[in-house]
Specification:
By secondary structure, the chain is of the alpha/beta class. It folds into 2 domains: 308 residues, 3-Layer(aba) Sandwich (Aminopeptidase); 163 residues, Glucose Oxidase, domain 1 (3-Layer(bba) Sandwich). It is built from 14 helices and 19 strands. A hairpin with a 2-residue loop joins strand 2 and strand 3. The longest helix has 19 residues. The two termini are 45 Å apart. The structure holds 2-acetamido-2-deoxy-beta-D-glucopyranose (8 copies). The site of one 2-acetamido-2-deoxy-beta-D-glucopyranose has 3 residues, from loops. One 2-acetamido-2-deoxy-beta-D-glucopyranose (NAG) binds next to loops. Keywords: Signal. This is Peptidase M28 domain-containing protein.
Length: 483
C-alpha cells in the first residue's frame, strides 16, 4: 500500500518537474497525511526509545526508497526509561495527585523519603532556602509567568508587534533545574507547586528536556487541593515520599541519519546546504520536521539542486544536556564530526531547520479551568539570520500573515534561537528555521489520545510548500546574496 503510494508519487513528482517550472512546490497530500498518521500513532518518541527507533528506521527506508544513500552517526548515552508505572507522591502514607515528573530526575536515586519542608519563595527570582530542607523533601514553587515576546525576541521590521503572551511551561519549567542546587544542599527530593497554570496544560509536561541528569527525584503538583494538602503537611512537619519507578539503561544507542544529494553546478562544488530536523520528541508535532525533509528529498532526487544538499535527521535533541555543553545542541555533534561537509573545502552557504509543523493553537481559560483549541493555528516562529533571508522569507512564505508568520531575528532579542537551527547560526551559516512553539509542545498525551488533532494539515502542507519554495529560490542565488 505504502510502496504503491510512493511509486505513484515519484512518478507524479517526475511529471510535475517536467511539466512545470521547478519552483512550483510539490506535495503529495496523501503521503503527507500518512506520515502524520504514522507519528500520531507512535505517540511519544523519547530519545533512544523503541518508538523513536521505529521512526528512524522508517525515515531510513523512505530515503532508500527514494534512491538516496543513507549515512549514520551513532550516539551512546544512559537512557532514563520514563516511569511505566505512574510516579507516586505520598504524605503520611496518603497518595497526593501529581501533575507530572521531571525528566532525567532521580538518576542517582529514584525514590526519596523525609520530612516535608516548605521552601516556597515570594517570586521566581528568589532562591529557595534549600539548606532548610537538608536530609528532607523540599516543597518549592514556581509560576507560569506571562511573557513579552517583543523583548524576548528580535523581529525583522515586517513582523507585527506581539500581543501579551501567556506563560509557557518550556520557559517557566526551566526552574526545575534548581534540583541541582537542591541536591548540592543535601535535599533528598523536591515537590514543586506549579502556579498560574491549568491542569490541561501542566499535566505530563516533559520539561525541562534539555538538562543533563538530575540526581534527586522531582515531581510537580497543580491541583489546588493537592497544594493545600502539601502546605498543611509541611506546616506540621509530616513525612513525605517520592517514587519515580523508571529505570536507567546504560549504553543505549541512537542513530542520526543523513543523505547527500550532489549538486549539478560544477562551479559550486565548494558549496553545500544543510537542511536539518530532529527525530525524537513527545508528540505528533514535537517532532514532525522529517515530513518536509523527505518530501524535499523526493523533489531533489527528481530535480537535483545546483549545490550539494545535505538532509540531516538528528537524534538526541530531547536530551541534549547529557550529550553536549550549552549553548551547543544535538546538531553540534554532527557538525563536529563532519567539518569537511561544511567548514573545509566545501562550505555551507545556507542552512534550514524544520521543527513543529502545523501546530494547532490552544488557550487556557482560568475561570473555567480549561485548556482547549482556539480554532486557529499557532504563530509560526521563523528565524531568519540575515536581512536578505528575512526579505526572501517574507516574500515566499505562503499565507504570510503578520499575526501568524513571525519573521524573527536570532541575532537580537533576549533569548537564544530555539531548536536545532541554533548550531547552524552559531557556525556562521546563514539560516532560516521554523520553530513554532505552542505551550503544549512538550506534553505527553495519554495512550489512546488522537494526536492527529494537534496537527492542522493545511497549515503543515503550507509550511512544507513554503520551505520548498524558499529552498529552491536559495539554490538559484549566490552565496553573497544570502549574507
Ligand atoms: C550521583 O552519583 C554519582 C555516582 O554515584 C556521584 O558521583 C554524584 O556525586 C552523585 N550526585 C549527586 C548530586 O548526588
Ligand atoms: C524577589 O524576592 C526576593 C526575596 O524576598 C527580593 O529580594 C526581590 O527583590 C524580589 N524580586 C522581585 C522582582 O520582586
Ligand atoms: C509561591 O507561592 C506564593 C504564595 O501563593 C506566591 O505569593 C509566590 O508568588 C509564589 N512564588 C513563585 C516563585 O511562584
Ligand atoms: C498568569 O497567567 C496569565 C495568562 O497566562 C497572565 O496573564 C498572568 O500575568 C500570569 N500571572 C503571573 C503572576 O504571571
Ligand atoms: C557525490 O559526489 C561525491 C564527491 O564527488 C562522490 O564521491 C559520490 O559518489 C557522489 N554521489 C553520487 C550519488 O553520485
Ligand atoms: C566557490 O567557488 C566559486 C567559484 O570559484 C566562488 O565564486 C565562490 O565564492 C566559492 N564559494 C565559497 C563559499 O567559497
Ligand atoms: C493582529 O492582531 C492584532 C491584535 O493582537 C489585531 O488588532 C490585528 O487586527 C491583527 N491583524 C490581522 C491581520 O489579523
Ligand atoms: C572552521 O574551521 C576553522 C579551521 O579551518 C576553525 O578555525 C573554525 O573554528 C571552524 N569554525 C567553526 C564554527 O567550527
Amino acid at each position: 500500500m505504502r510502496a504503491a503510494t510512493l511509486a505513484g508519487s515519484l512518478l507524479a513528482a517526475t511529471l510535475a518537474v517536467t511539466a512545470t517550472a521547478p519552483s512550483t512546490p510539490y506535495n503529495d497530500l496523501q503521503w503527507i497525511q500518512s506520515e502524520i498518521d504514522f507519528i500520531a500513532k507512535l505517540q511519544a518518541r523519547l530519545t533512544g526509545s523503541p518508538e523513536h527507533n521505529i521512526l528512524i528506521d522508517h525515515i531510513e527506508s523512505e530515503l532508500k526508497r527514494i534512491g538516496l544513500h543513507v549515512y549514520e552517526d551513532i550516539i551512546e548515552f544512559s537512557y532514563s526509561d520514563p516511569p511505566v508505572i505512574q510516579p507516586v507522591l505520598k504524605v503520611n502514607g496518603q497518595n497526593i495527585q501529581l501533575s507530572g515528573w521531571i525528566p532525567y530526575s532521580g538518576t542517582n536515586s529514584s525514590s526519596a523519603t523525609g520530612k516535608l519542608v516548605n521552601v516556597v519563595t515570594p517570586n521566581i527570582t528568589a532562591t529557595p532556602n534549600w539548606a532548610a530542607a537538608k536530609d528532607a523533601i523540599a516543597l518549592a514553587n514556581l509560576t507560569n509567568v506571562a511573557l513579552d515576546y517583543n523583548t524576548l525576541f528580535g523581529a525583522w521590521s515586517l513582523s507585527a508587534p506581539w500581543p501579551p503572551q501567556p506563560g509557557v511551561p518550556a520557559i517557566s519549567g526551566v526552574e526545575f533545574t534548581n534540583l541541582v542546587a537542591a541536591a548540592a544542599a543535601g535535599v533528598r527530593g523536591v515537590v514543586y507547586i506549579w502556579d498560574n497554570i491549568t491542569a490541561g496544560l501542566a499535566d505530563d509536561q516533559y520539561v525541562p528536556f534539555q538538562q543533563a541528569n538530575l540526581a534527586i527525584p522531582g515531581v510537580y503538583v497543580q491541583s489546588a487541593s493537592a497544594i493545600l494538602h502539601l502546605l498543611d503537611a509541611a506546616r506540621s512537619g509530616t513525612d513525605a515520599s517520592i517514587d519515580l519507578p523508571g529505570k536507567r539503561v546504560p549504553n543505549t544507542r541512537s542513530r542520526t541519519l543523513y543523505a547527500i544529494v550532489n549538486g549539478t553546478d560544477h562551479t559550486l562544488r565548494n558549496e553545500t546546504v544543510i537542511i536539518n530536523t530532529h527525530t525524537d520528541g513527545v508528540n505528533a508535532v514535537e517532532e514532525n520536521g522529517h515530513i518536509a525533509l523527505l518530501n524535499y528529498a523526493r523533489r531533489l532526487k527528481a530535480n537535483p539542486p545546483r549545490r550539494t544538499t545535505i538532509l540531516l535527521f538528528v537524534t538526541g535533541h530531547m536530551h541534549y544536556g547529557e550529550l553536549v555543553a550549552a549553548p551547543a545542541r544535538a546538531t553540534d555533534l554532527w557538525l563536529r564530526a563532519h567539518p569537511e561537509l561544511w567548514n573545509g573545502t566545501q562550505r555551507a552557504v545556507f542552512g534550514s531547520c524544520v521543527e513543529h509543523m502545523g501546530a494547532v493553537q490552544f488557550a487556557e481559560d482560568f475561570a473555567k479551568g480549561t485548556y482547549e483549541p482556539t480554532g486557529g493555528v499557532e504563530p509560526e516562529w521563523l528565524f531568519a539570520a540575515t536581512a536578505p533571508l528575512a526579505a526572501l522569507v517574507q516574500r515566499l512564505w505562503s499565507g504570510a500573515e503578520p499575526n501568524v508568520t513571525r519573521v524573527l531575528n536570532p541575532n537580537t532579542g533576549e533569548i537564544a534561537q530555539s531548536g536545532e537551527g541554533l548550531p547552524l547560526l552559531k557556525a556562521g551559516i546563514p539560516e532560516v528555521s521554523l520553530v513554532t512553539s505552542p505551550a503544549w509542545l512538550l506534553k505527553f498525551y495519554d495512550r489512546g489520545f488522537d494526536e492527529r488533532t494537534l496537527v492542522d494539515t493545511k497549515a503543515l502542507v503550507r509550511q512544507v510548500a513554503s520551505f520548498e519554495r524558499l529552498w529552491n529560490a536559495v539554490d538559484g542565488l549566490s552565496a553573497e546574496d544570502l549574507q
